[in-house]
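Each field is set out underneath.
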Amino acid sequence: MNLRPARTEEIAALEALQLRASLAWGDHVRELTDNPDAIELPGEHVPHAFVAEDASGRVLGFAVVLPREDGDAELDGLFVEPDAWRRGIGARLVDEAARRARDAGARSLHVVANERALAFYAACGFEVTGQVMTRFAPAPTMRKTL
């Protein structure tokens, strides 16, 4: 697996991957299909995004790491193709996100997690810090000390 920077010309493909991954559990299907703007990779986030691809160049997942005003970093998105789940891709993306955040001077990496992803993020070293209301439902906030 190769990690590389995301490219502006692949925004639509990354958004489609995000939608597939978001719909895979069957949660919030109506909300996501009725609100396509909820699945959006803003152009200004592309410089902060990176993708995981296999040897053939197929994109298997991507993540976005944004700087926060407090000097820490936010894992603003992490999505893996559902047919590639449980192959270590998500963990590799988290490791890269943590490296990028640390290299940028962050002390912690934060994420607003899907309830179904709590165990995954905990296995990656995140701890629950609270809860926020997202557009569709409450979600736990988590932090990983770098």
